């Protein structure tokens, strides 16, 4: 470990590793990444692997489309096949009201140059014949979206960053951040202290603990999200599917496993890392409502992950005016895996140039004071306790 | 010729298969019997390859017959991935093979075995990175290879009935330890549920014809007799409910033990739990160790003593403990010639164990300090190549050689099946059992306790003998009942006595 680093990244998930990689590649910065556990041990290695940019708000479309473009060439960039596939991503409408919402979102998407297709119920049925027709009012298809292998994305970024002399320390906990006269000076870890003027909080569900080290209070809340995987079946679901109206999402992996998650209708926040029976029922019954022939199929594994959420469900990215050199990349609200490459790249551009790009400017921390919240209609939302 | 694989007479069992019935396999009629499993009927009809493996499409035959492995997954009446080793055969049933084209015997995709150099583990991350379009083509091919069975044909599957219960004590697993725990906890006065995955309690000992000392009593009994007697004793108890065909598969955050059964989903909130889930058999490592004709010892016992089907004509037993010799005797009883016993232990250890003496009369060659180097054959085992175990002392048989056989019995070590303990409480301790094997065991405090309301007993705790399993079950069962205020000073006395005996056994 060196005595001094240009940038210290806290958190070895996709946000931290992508940022470290782009900083080293584009700016030859000396970067260190500290991870409390193993790389990708948080939400980065526990998510549903799905990737899209077909959202409904200008802000989300902008940032996530930057990310989608990076996903397309990520394997070649990092020299590791992250198995990103453009199988297509369908956002499902289960009633006409939701379908109208998709139509509105599509307008926003077209204005920003995205090519998405509105599908009527018959189109969806043709694409996914085994889906229950009673549940389908239509959908929106983004053909160049899909999914990737989440572990591979972590390994790919970590290997590529390491080759560019980024120091990566797993199983190393950050214990304190030294701030003098309003500026970051050093970071204390279980491995020793390093000097730096720039610290990035990319600690996922532990974002608040890190922010409190500099005396900053984040308007975030950690939430449990649960996922279930079935035994491998011959391919029957060619697209990634998300049904925001039913609070569920799913795809079929290249091994044939049907994988996805859902929320209970009576959502109760929890930070437990155990699976709950209530959510297990919710996931299974939503799977079966959409795909009746899945009934009786065995569940192979299930697990949980923690996401950090803001009141408007959008991440907080960028500096804070209170502490110089303390930068946030937090509260990705369950959309951090797909947004990882874009978030990392945009934040690295800011750190290297000092200029906030238009993609991340709206995601500042000030918006919760000024009230300029980001309203995104096309995501799965949870009740938030902070109003 | 294959029809005579059904055992007609056996020194230990009176065989009654029930009436002959007809079912369909891949469109052709097959004869089975009422009390047979699908696997037994197919095996007796001559089928050896039951499935193909996921990646290399290697042939897979019956292996564990206990519902643990994936070798016998088939499509039954439109339902994918059914383990036919633990499903009984019904007249008119439609059974189909999966993941093989055009047939199980000749599967085109098995060519991937020759492309091994291209598709080594992890290949998918290292290849097809550039140019991009190559990956999209490759991916289409990859996806076609995905999955084992196809989606079910059944559109309106009725959901299981959701039920709940809060017994005083839930005992998970009905083997010796579980039966002992259930018996003693009930006798002390607690309301007990005994949850058993198979159709009858008794555990693997019910398929065992070896003789065992009767614990807490005198004399010796056959394993199957002991299982039957104990099951009978537990069934007599008014306050013990035996739930068979039920799998306790998870602890949920609501502190609910989820148990699934045909048509039923039980949410249990027991006040005390005894985990007596037994153990898994460990396969051995050698070339081609997945060839059809290779069985785990417990699988052979189930095939011979549950399904009354002979595994083949000429067997080799590979072992590292005394159990292998018992298996050799049981193979002989079923009418199988035993060509050799391969024992990886030192010669003096083998002699000292005395187990070898039991099979001496049968004139079976025993090769101590040897193990199996490779199984020979392409679609079915034709023989084994054995080699001396690397050792500094002078072995008698220093060069490897071949033995012809059509059955290989793997009687190796066992590993505790204690996932339910780890899911809820301790992380377990790792013990180096032999140079080749780490075993993970739950950490117990006194009275076989692993948590305030949880106990573990039998092979799930790492027990090495039937006697030990019995007394662990007794200690756990009595303690669970005492915890809840059942029993009296005598109960406590009995528990402490059993625990003292256990400590003696372990030293």
SSE diagram, text form:
The complex is a heterodimer of chains A (about 375) and B (about 500).
Chain A lengths: L6 E4 L3 H14 L3 E4 L15 E2 L6 H21 L10 E5 L2 H16 L4 E5 H7 L10 E5 L3 E2 L2 H14 L3 E3 L4 E7 L2 E7 L2 E4 L3 E3 L5 H6 L8 E10 L9 E4 L4 E5 L5 E5 L14 H14 L8 E11 L6 E4 L6 E5 L5 H18 L13 H4 L17
Parallel strand pairs in A: 1-2, 1-12, 2-8, 4-14, 12-19
Antiparallel strand pairs in A: 3-7, 4-6, 5-6, 9-10, 10-11, 13-16, 13-17, 14-15, 15-16, 18-19
Helix pairs in contact in A: 1-5, 1-8, 2-5, 2-8
Chain B lengths: L19 E6 L2 E6 L4 H7 L6 E2 L6 E2 L12 E4 L2 E5 L10 E3 L26 H4 L5 H14 L15 E5 L3 E4 L3 H12 L4 E4 L15 E3 L6 E3 H13 L4 E4 L2 E7 L3 E6 L2 E5 L3 E4 L3 E3 L12 E3 H9 L8 E6 L3 H11 L3 E7 L3 H7 L1 H6 L5 E3 L1 E7 L6 E6 L12 E4 L2 E5 L2 E3 L2 H6 L4 E6 L2 E5 L7 E3 L2 E3 L9 H18 L5 H18 L1
Parallel strand pairs in B: 1-7, 8-16, 9-10, 9-17, 10-13, 17-31, 19-26, 20-21, 20-26, 21-22
Antiparallel strand pairs in B: 1-2, 3-4, 5-6, 5-7, 11-12, 14-15, 15-16, 18-27, 23-24, 24-25, 28-29, 30-31
Helix pairs in contact in B: 4-5, 4-11, 6-7, 11-12
Identify the notable features of this structure and list them briefly.
heterodimer; A: 387 residues; alpha/beta; FAD/NAD(P)-binding domain; D-Amino Acid Oxidase, Chain A, domain 2; 2 domains; 8-stranded mixed sheet; 6-stranded mixed sheet; globular; B: 507 residues; Ubiquitin-like (UB roll); 3 domains; 5-stranded mixed sheet; 31 strands; 25% helix
Radius of gyration of chain B: 24 Å
Q: How much helix, percentage-wise, in residues of chain A?
A: 25-40%
Share of residues in strands of chain B:
25-35%
Query: What structural category arises from helix and sheet content of chain A?
Result: alpha/beta
Largest sheet properties of chain B: 6 strands, mixed
